[in-house]
Give the backbone structure.
Amino acid sequence: MEPIVEPVIFTEDTFDVHFHCSRKHDIEETIELYTRIMKLIGLKKFMILCAAFHSPTKFNYDTNLKSACVKREMSPNVYVSASFKHNLDNSIETEANSLLKQTEEYYQAGFDGMKMLEAHPTLSKYVGMMCSERFSKAFAFLEENNIPILMHVADPRKAWDKSKCTPWELEHNRFYDESLPTFDECIDDIMDLMKKYPKLNLCLAHGGFLWEDTEKSKFEKFLGDYENTSVDLAGGPGCYFAQDPDFFIPFITKYQDKFIYGSDTYNSAPYDYANWEYDIQYRPRCARDSFAGDKKNYDYAGDKYDGMNLPKSVCRKVFYDNAIKKWGETPRKIDENWLMKELEWNEKFYAEHEFKSADLKKMRKLLEK
Ligand SMILES: [Zn+2]
């Protein structure tokens, strides 16, 4: 591999709350890749968002374990939000109790909060909306203990309009037909959730797509009416905010304690080193240039933007302080006993699965050293 280059995006303390851990790379490669990414981007801290439930047929049960192993190895700079294991055959009551038990277990084990992809329409189709009975006990516990949740709700509005989807999106099931909840149903579910649990410590990924609402009244209500709500900038919204500076400069300044930097970065491989470097920098650069920069007419995914040039004090909060306030100066300590117990559970579960058991062997080696 090529030597590590100097950090190219951030030179001040930066905390990225939106990283993922794909199953494409084993634990050793993953730790090596994250280490390179941190150095390249200039990150001080990041948080891995686990996703155990991708579709009714695609479960990724070792994700909490693997991410916790990364957190342990890269301490004290990696935080992890755990994800739920669902059983779609169980009754709602059994599941409600299971999700509560899991929430308690992950928190006691030393995770830093929960990640929920379940409010994505392709998943809520199977597990129900956030206000449904299945989630009620878990949310009550999360609210009572002020445990942060990072949640992905909805998707870009155009995903519900076939005529606006690209051939790639159509091929990859990114068009949502009438069998799925609509964009507004997804958003309204979250607004109702906040009415039910007004102190919920809830951060919506990708700006919650609330910026898609032309009136912005739901965005205003979500951030303004509840004390513990926030949004992250992952993906495009950092740039989209920059497309409407007249609205967003005062809006972000008003809610400067509630915007949190995230990039949606994966442990992807440097197969082609030059392109990999460019890809990994792409989203962080967009967020930095839209918020902190004064560059005019820069390109992001084919569209042109002007930097909003927000005050340094606001950028400092968005790129570091707000995340530290929510998730702490140091990550919570992961419980060694839980790691071994979870490893054994996964070893049994994936005994017949070649790729997984090879990765689990490496995790065992790492935990026993
Ligand atoms: Zn993501």
Notes: Residues 18, 20, 205, 234, 264 surround zinc ion (CB under 6 Å).
